[in-house]
Design brief:
alpha/beta, 177 residues, 21% helix, four-stranded mixed sheet
């Protein structure tokens, strides 16, 4: 576990968070995904990719299962307004990398987000949340991802509002689409 001196290296360090969520703004196909956390009125919003949301949800589930935490994601209602993004929504940075850790003694998950690359490090954020908060985050993230464009049953690519070029259908649009 990191000591207090290392924690000061983060641009944003919310330990523990009072609220953590993933949400979007924009229409399906043009949505921007956000990871957002709050502590004592201080809210930090980060832009993430859809793939980050999917991977984070899966990783949280595996991490909680590995420490024997109740990982029943169906027990959390992901559709409630209690998981909505808080306004005003101003992103501190775009995330390039996420990492998870666990503090088993205090039953917390540590989520670290970094901007930039190894060649060009940018800002970073560290959020510490309870196992229950992270279970709710995982469930809600999957719910948010599913609100996007439907996937083609043949190729798995998103179906756009106008048309869909399906490589498995040799480029032909199926009438049911």
């Amino acid at each position: 576990m990191e000591d207090q001196e290392q924690w000061r290296e983060y641009d944003f360090n919310l330990d523990p968070v009072s609220f953590i969520t993933i949400g979007t703004q924009g229409r399906p196909g043009e949505r921007t995904f956000y990871l957002q956390a709050t502590q004592r009125g201080n809210t930090v919003s980060l832009v993430i990719e859809k793939e980050h949301a999917i991977a984070l949800a899966a990783s949280i589930g595996r991490l909680l299962a590995s420490v024997g935490a109740d990982a029943d994601l169906d027990a959390h209602d992901p559709s409630g307004s209690r998981m909505s993004l808080l306004e005003p929504l101003e992103a501190a940075f775009r995330v390039s990398e996420l990492g998870l850790g666990v503090d088993e003694e205090n039953e917390h998950v540590i989520l670290v987000a970094h901007e930039g690359t190894t060649d060009s490090p940018g800002r970073s954020a560290r959020f510490t949340a309870s196992f229950d908060q992270m279970q709710a985050l995982s469930s809600h993230a999957l719910h948010v991802v599913k609100q996007g464009r439907p996937l083609c049953p043949l190729c798995g690519n998103p179906i756009g509002p106008e048309s869909h070029f399906c490589p498995r259908a040799n480029g032909h649009i199926k009438p049911e689409q």
